[in-house]
Amino acid sequence: MKVDNKKKIKKKLRLLTALLLLSVTVIFILLIYAFILTDNETLGLICIFTIIILTLYTAKNLLSLKYFEYEHSGEVISIKHYHFWKTGLIKPNIELPKYRLDSFNITENQDPCKLQLSIKASRGNEFCFKYNISNLTRNEVKKIKQSLEEKNETA
Q1: Model-level pTM greater than 0.85?
Q2: How far apart are CA 34 and CA 105, in angstroms?
Q3: Fewest CB atoms within 10 Å of the CB: 15, 81, 115, 123?
Q4: What is the per-residue pLDDT across 4-46, written as a single tens digit (0 to 9) for each?
Q5: Given CA atoms 43, 49, 55, 60 in this order, what sign does their dihedral have?
Q6: Helices 41-64 and 6-32: crossing angle, nearest 10°?
């Protein structure tokens, strides 16, 4: 079974890029109107402040967009979590046998939705991995939860 959020991330990426371009265009037009046509410096400063806020907000959202790919086949669980601009061969963040999975937790009621995995190492150490899975549908989250419960029961 394979679950990923590539389609949703691509839609969100297009939306944020369009929002950024639209806001910059509108603010640019307002700046021309404020400084050239009316000589109103207050409106110009408000426009500059607004474009800085919108640009920072959009840049923050663009930088936080990550693809999430969960795959399990037989005895192996594989998770890839990477930025949208990364291309080429993507190595999994985690690739482990199902018996190494100690426990998991999915927080669905919070925004962002998170997946937390606890993994037993061969020397008895325990590692915890957290992933943002808020761009997945409820059905996809349910599939991941069922597969992890299945893996946890048989381990």
Answers
A1: no
A2: 53
A3: 123
A4: 888 888 888 898 888 888 877 877 777 777 777 777 777 777 7
A5: negative
A6: 170
